[in-house]
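anyone else get weird line breaks when pasting these?? whatever heres mine. first is seq + tokens for prot A
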Amino acid sequence: MDLSSPRRTVLAVPGSSARFIDKSRQLPVDAVFLDLEDAVAPDAKVAARDKVLAALRDQRGWQAPAVTLRVNDWSSPWTIGDLMTVVAGAGDRLDAIVLPKVTDPSQVQAIDLVLTQIERGAGWPLGRIGIEAQIEDAQGLAMVNQIAAASQRLVSLVFGPGDFMASLGMGSLSVGSQPSGYPADAFHYPLMAILVAARAHGLAAIDGPFVGIRDAAGFQASAAKAAALGFDGKWVLHPDQIAAGNQAFTPPSDQLARAQRIVTAYQAASAQSGGAVGAIEVDQEMVDEAGVKLAQALLARSSVLGQ
């Protein structure tokens, strides 16, 4: 997976539903993941592998630039079967594997080894299939820095709010929603810890789902907070969430215009002073090298989005 490509919206697609898989092909998201884990009932998991395999082999493909597969976690009896059926059968059509419930770097390293054997056996380029590690509980968050450094295949860290809320005993039954009775943002710490670990190791950071698919305001607020922190994108569960998700993680035009003014003014002042400029005033604010870096980062992100 090319980390320079946008990851604003990542659509969850149940692997057991041929209808949902077909519908996902034309949706305007930046990535889709075909799910063999939580979205598939235990009795349907084996059959779902074959549906996903057939879908990946279908020549119609997806409008989304990236297509990934969420396998079952290592504590389940299905992980190896998921990999050997779907990845061995159509790994050349996949950009990455989403590994859920990661609690230790050894779990990432294990899936790396299996992917290497599959790629070598198929004659595919080694290391082409990426890994997305999903952080979903207290133990995983406590080990997030080590997990982020576990494999060269890692392309992103993903927050899993549902299992995380359960592992901490948060007082809410709605995944991704703030627990009642707590005045601050209950997700600020896990999101920030995941973001710092991701950036320290050159990875993307993706926020997890908001299950209130009819709560447009709630989804927008959740996406806006993650975007404000610096996350690259968010999972979406329904087509109604896509437009709002894409907008939340797309820099607004007024910010881009100001960023360009900052960079242009600083470059002009630096050229005039022979590189000796320290700080300048732009839009009634002092701007030094740190402010220029912020502006350059925003412009670089907008360039990736084709703005």
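and prot B, same format (seq, then tokens)
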Amino acid sequence: MSDWLREAADGSLTLTLHIQPGAKKPGFAGLHGEAMKIRLAAPPVDGKANAALCAFLADFCKVPKSAVTLISGETSRAKRVRVEGGSAEMISRLREMA
């Protein structure tokens, strides 16, 4: 598994991300060092980008929003996110983004 995507023994995933808020078009933008770069349309104010990130990942991974948790990086572009309920299909889809 790549450095940005780690699977825990309980089946959850930890994603190391680099966020670009205020982008015109949201989506995956390839690797940024050892992190996956994600563009978000939301501005980086009042937690809007963090909420947009969790919603984007929940939608992409096909899990409820409550299954996506911001572990670290609340006020930084460098973030770590935990996704519960990882499936083989979801891991495969995430790997394709690299």
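btw re prot B: Residues 26 and 40 are 4 Å apart (CA to CA). The first helix runs from residue 48 to 61.
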